[in-house]
């Protein structure tokens, strides 16, 4: 079951939401709105074991921002920081 990133058009909240199938209706976890836009998720450009908790210098695939500045560093986030 895929995880997708969504942006709420009403309150601006961005969240990862588990979508079971194409008939699944998704709602904003902050305001409850159904007015969500699916975002493009970027994968990490790193491979192998990491010596640091964050991706390396020059990696800008963390929600389109540099690591540590994306504002999405929660559990299961695209930054991978717990």
- Measured as a percent range, the helix fraction is under 10%
Order of helices and strands: EEE
Low-pLDDT regions: none
Spatial separation of the terminal alpha carbons = 22 Å
User: Quaternary state, please?
Assistant: single chain
**Overall form:** globular
Q: Which strand order does the major sheet show?
A: 2-1-3
**What is the overall number of helices?**
0
Radius of gyration: 14 Å
Biggest sheet architecture = 3 strands, antiparallel
Strand content: 15-25%
Please identify the structural class as seen in this structure: mainly beta
Count of distinct strands: 3
What average pLDDT do the residues reach?
Answer: 72
Question: How do the helices and strands line up, and which of them pair or pack?
Answer:
Blueprint: E1 3-8, E2 14-18, E3 36-38
Antiparallel strand pairs: 1-2, 1-3
